[in-house]
């Protein structure tokens, strides 16, 4: 069995029963709500959501389309998408990092032997914002990371106005981040990820 197939947090979650035809036979319908790792085929949908979410706020995107494809080819298992009836509505993209703190190189590199998961971006489609989906997706992502034997902590960088949101998700601020993008400065934050053995005993991983 593959690692992903064994993880309960990535199994489709059906929020309503499939509809039945008048004759009592079930018609095929897409899952009302599904969480799964992203693939390179999802890259365009990811970029469209990200571009709309970030361009108006900061004038740039954390990841451009070629970088999204890069990470979804190298480490799709460190991404998570939320789909509503087959449509991507929110996502997280991560990669592995092998140092205590993030550096400029962390923006583009995936370190396969790393134990820190660098969360590059979390974004929600504009029509699904203000519904708590960002918090729910981050919670599921952190639960998923706890099932990965190599993951020890999650790292991210964000602007000051997002620090309260990530604090509510359980992250703690480490201080100013070394990474800058143009004139933008960031706060670096981390969240511990418990060991694989603990989660196997307590969550069915």
From TrEMBL:
Q: Name one GO molecular function term.
A: aralkylamine N-acetyltransferase activity
Keywords of the record: Acyltransferase, Biological rhythms, Cytoplasm, Melatonin biosynthesis, Phosphoprotein, Transferase
Gene3D superfamilies (UniProt xref): 3.40.630.30
Q: Where in the cell is it found?
A: Cytoplasm
According to its UniProt record, the EC number is 2.3.1.87
Gene Ontology cellular-component annotations: cytoplasm
* CDD domains per the UniProt record, alphabetical: NAT_SF
According to the entry, every stretch annotated as the N-acetyltransferase domain falls at 33-194
Q: Which reaction does it catalyse?
A: a 2-arylethylamine + acetyl-CoA = an N-acetyl-2-arylethylamine + CoA + H(+)
EC top class, in one word?
transferase
**What is one GO biological process annotated to this record?**
circadian rhythm
Q: Does the keyword Disulfide bond apply?
A: no
Q: Which domain of life is it from?
A: Eukaryota
UniProt-listed InterPro entries: Acyl_CoA_acyltransferase, GNAT_dom, SNAT-like
Keyword Signal tagged: no
Q: In which pathway does it act?
A: Aromatic compound metabolism; melatonin biosynthesis; melatonin from serotonin: step 1/2
The UniProt similarity line reads: Belongs to the acetyltransferase family. AANAT subfamily.
State the protein's name: Serotonin N-acetyltransferase
Source organism of the structure: Lophotis ruficrista
């Amino acid at each position: 069995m593959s690692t992903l197939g064994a993880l309960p947090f990535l199994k489709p979650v059906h929020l309503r029963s499939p509809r039945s035809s008048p004759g009592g036979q079930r018609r095929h319908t897409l899952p009302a709500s599904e969480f799964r790792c992203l693939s390179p085929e999802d890259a365009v949908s990811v970029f469209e959501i990200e571009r709309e979410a970030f361009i108006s706020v900061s004038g740039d995107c954390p990841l451009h389309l070629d970088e999204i494809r890069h990470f979804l080819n190298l480490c799709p298992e460190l991404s998570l998408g939320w789909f509503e009836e087959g449509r991507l509505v929110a996502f997280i993209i991560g990669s592995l990092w092998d140092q205590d703190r993030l550096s400029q190189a962390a923006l583009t590199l995936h370190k396969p032997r790393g134990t820190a998961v660098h969360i590059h971006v979390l974004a929600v489609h504009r029509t699904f914002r203000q519904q708590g989906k960002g918090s729910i997706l981050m919670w599921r992502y952190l639960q998923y990371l706890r099932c990965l034997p190599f993951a020890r902590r999650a790292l991210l960088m964000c602007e000051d106005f997002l620090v309260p949101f990530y604090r509510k998700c359980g992250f703690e601020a480490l201080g100013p981040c070394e990474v800058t993008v143009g004139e933008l400065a960031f706060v670096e934050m981390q969240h511990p990820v418990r060991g694989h053995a603990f989660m196997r005993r307590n969550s069915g991983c």
